[in-house]
């Protein structure tokens, strides 16, 4: 018989439960499944769970017990949920049931979810995987977390991440390695790898992550779920800061980094973004930002640009094939699909600029020895070396004038994209250059490589 990925994980969870014997949590999860007319809850989306809760066909406590049972059955091997807050979550689920019984209805009331470890949750550790952050607990919730709780979410705990949220793999000295639920020998991605793995493993339907250089999008791709990097400044970042740092109402990344949702459906991403978006202001709830609707309601009306390659990096053939298949299906619906456009900004220039500015930002507060080493490495580069590695090496040494020049270049690229989106509604492109790759935790990130089957070459896998 054939077995899809959801069936495989469900069967795995059942096998582990049978071997261990039914615990109270597993018994409650079985009760929850029965209450849901015999259909598994493992991969239900928010709207489906919302309907069950509102109709009182299942309770928030039963959903909580089901999620906890699945985490306890599977996460010993996946290692996605690294900070667990089950006691307080159970109390929140009971409060949700009481509210539902009173007739209250909120978008996430009684829905279990987890959040990336880098977000402050009052009373829980925020370490960013850094040993210096060990034993520090946040005094209050991040704005994004507070908004999810206000919508009724039951926060079960926090998920694993890359050290200092600066790697395309999720491992660190405090919590260890998160494995991809579909293949434990491969990475779940980074830096929001635990977030994507928790969704892919069927623990929760919704997650909160962050992204400066693919940290939502890459794990979502590698784990087969949905992720969204919102427009800069759309979701407040206060409370998403390194351990022991003040929660300031400012974006220290100059719009490079954002907070955003991950989910198993696009509809759930849209719901979460509506709840998260809006100014960082105590009165924001009174004038919460209303995001514009889609330009069209039928696929046949969309104008689509497909980009399946990159001038600086090979894209694996499996990914290009999937995009081609999607483009062909869209074309059959009547959508206008183009595979090139003179309006497309220079992707090589964009990559070099992004690398330059992100690497400069992440070098902030590094010790003098770090900059001395980079000065020596830059001195050894050829003046005409235009490789991404050379740009990464030079980036930490940008002066203020060079940074401002970068901001001007960003503005120019934004204008070019705005012009393109007058002609197209959607741009389809690879979320990452490869599928999930084997764990590679060499300390020197410049020595990490990824096999790329598409051009019989090996691609560098440094930190983003």
Sheet having the most strands: 6 strands, mixed
> How many structural domains are formed by the residues?
2
CATH architecture annotation name of the largest domain: Alpha-Beta Complex
Which structural class do the helices and strands define?
alpha/beta
Q: What number is the mean pLDDT? A: 89
Task: Count up the helices.
Answer: 14
Low-confidence stretches: 1-38, 454-464
What's the β-strand tally?
A: 15
End-to-end C-alpha gap? 41 Å
Helical amount: 25-40%
Give the strand order, joined by hyphens, for the main sheet. Answer: 1-3-2-8-10-9
| CATH C-level class of the largest domain | Alpha Beta
Task: Please tell me what the overall shape is.
Answer: globular
Name of the CATH homologous superfamily of the largest domain: Amidase signature (AS) domain
CATH topology term of the largest domain: Amidase signature (AS) enzymes
Tell me what you see in this structure.
The structure is a single chain. This protein has 464 residues and is of the alpha/beta class. The chain has two domains: 5-244 and 253-287, Amidase signature (AS) enzymes (Alpha-Beta Complex); 347-460, no CATH class. Helix content is 39%, strand content 12%. The chain has 14 helices and 15 strands. The protein has helices at residues 5-20, 24-35, 46-54, 60-78, 86-101, 143-150, 193-200, 217-223, 266-276, 317-333, 347-362, 368-379, 388-394, 400-423, and strands spanning 81-84, 112-116, 154-159, 171-172, 176-177, 179-180, 183-187, 206-211, 226-227, 258-263, 303-306, 336-338, 426-428, 449-452, 457-460. The strands form five sheets. It has a six-stranded mixed β-sheet with strand order 1-3-2-8-10-9, with helices on both faces. A three-stranded parallel β-sheet has the order 12-11-13, with helices on one face. A two-stranded antiparallel sheet has the order 4-5. A hairpin with a 2-residue loop joins strand 6 and strand 7 (183-187). Helix 7 (193-200) runs parallel beside helix 8 (217-223) and helix 11 (347-362) runs parallel beside helix 13. It is globular. The model is unreliable at 1-38 and 454-464 (pLDDT under 50).
């Amino acid at each position: 018989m054939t077995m899809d990925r959801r069936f495989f994980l469900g069967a795995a969870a059942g096998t582990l439960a049978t071997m261990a014997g039914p615990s109270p949590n597993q018994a409650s999860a079985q009760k929850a499944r029965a209450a849901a007319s015999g259909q598994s809850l493992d991969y239900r989306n928010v709207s489906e769970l919302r309907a069950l809760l509102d109709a009182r066909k299942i309770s928030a406590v039963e959903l909580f017990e089901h999620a906890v049972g699945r985490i306890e059955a599977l996460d010993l091997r996946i290692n996605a949920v690294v900070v667990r807050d089950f006691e307080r979550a159970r109390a929140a689920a009971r409060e949700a049931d009481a509210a539902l019984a009173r007739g209250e209805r909120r978008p996430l009331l009684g829905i279990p979810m987890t959040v990336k470890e880098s977000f402050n949750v009052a009373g829980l550790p925020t370490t960013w995987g850094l040993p210096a952050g060990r034993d520090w607990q946040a005094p209050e919730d991040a704005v994004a977390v507070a908004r999810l709780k206000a919508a009724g979410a039951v926060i079960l705990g926090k998920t694993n991440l890359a050290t200092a949220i600066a790697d395309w793999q999720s491992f660190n000295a405090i919590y260890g390695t998160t494995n991809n639920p579909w293949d434990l020998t491969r990475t779940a991605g980074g830096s929001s790898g635990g977030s994507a793995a928790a969704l892919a493993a069927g623990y929760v339907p919704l997650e909160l992550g962050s992204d400066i250089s693919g940290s939502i999008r890459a794990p979502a791709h590698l784990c087969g779920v949905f992720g969204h990097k919102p427009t800069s400044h759309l979701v407040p970042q206060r409370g998403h800061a390194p351990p022991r740092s003040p929660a300031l109402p400012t974006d220290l990344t100059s719009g490079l980094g954002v907070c955003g949702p991950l989910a198993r459906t696009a509809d759930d991403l849209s719901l979460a973004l509506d709840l998260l978006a809006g100014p960082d202001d105590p009165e924001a709830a009174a004038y919460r930002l209303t995001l514009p609707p889609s330009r069209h309601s039928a696929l046949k009306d969309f104008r689509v640009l497909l980009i399946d390659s990159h001038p600086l990096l090979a894209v694996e053939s499996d990914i290009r094939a999937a995009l081609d298949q999607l483009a062909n299906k869209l074309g059959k619906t009547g959508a206008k699909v183009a595979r090139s456009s003179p309006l497309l900004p220079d992707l090589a220039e964009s990559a070099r600029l992004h690398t330059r500015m992100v690497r400069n930002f992440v070098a902030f507060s590094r010790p003098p020895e770090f900059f001395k080493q980079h000065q020596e490495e830059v001195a050894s580069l050829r003046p005409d070396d235009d490789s991404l590695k050379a740009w990464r090496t030079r980036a930490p040494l940008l002066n203020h004038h060079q940074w401002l020049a970068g901001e001007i270049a960003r503005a120019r690229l934004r204008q070019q994209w705005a012009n393109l989106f007058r002609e197209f509604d959607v741009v389809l492109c690879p979320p990452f250059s490869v599928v999930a790759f084997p764990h590679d935790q060499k300390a020197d990130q410049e020595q990490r490589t990824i096999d790329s089957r598409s051009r019989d070459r090996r691609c560098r896998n440094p930190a983003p």
